[in-house]
Amino acid sequence: MTSPGQQHRPSLSKVLSPLARKNLDVITDSFAALSRDDLAAHLANCHDDIVVEFPYATPPVRISGNASLATYLANALSLFSLELEITNVIEGADPSLLVLEYTSSGLALSTKRPYANSYIGIFHFTESKILLQREYYNPTPANEALAP
């Protein structure tokens, strides 16, 4: 486990294209910012027209635009303290597409219960910024960590 704010850089079994490597650096910096509750640094890595989707949330969530994402993430960071760690990276045929496997570990702030989850994220980039994030995860661990 890395210390808070220090993003683990996965060892890759294959060489990424220069653009995919640059995009992975954007995600790595973004995840490190979220792990240290630095919302502004995370949002600096997001395109103004970002779309974030959580298809497995209850109900499914679609967030459009950096301002809406800021509101959503401020709420999420008030509920959880967490560290994100990338465990696998798959480059798409288009190097502006990355598929990531990652994990979180942390704490539900209101209950002091541990929270951990695994994710698959599909990320599209433009102009070295995240344009689309589609995140698949199991909502049950979050619900259990927050339950009174």
Could you walk me through the main structural features you see in this protein, from its secondary elements to its overall organization?
By secondary structure, the chain is an alpha+beta fold. It has a single domain, classed as Nuclear Transport Factor 2, Chain: A (Roll). 30% of the residues lie in helices and 40% in strands. The chain is built from four helices and six strands; from the N terminus they run ααββαββββα. Strands 2-1-6-5-4-3 form a six-stranded mixed beta sheet. A hairpin with a 5-residue loop joins β3 and β4. Mean pLDDT is 92; it is low at 1-8. It holds the Pfam family SnoaL_2. Residues 28-130 form the SnoaL-like domain. InterPro entries: NTF2-like_dom_sf, SnoaL-like.
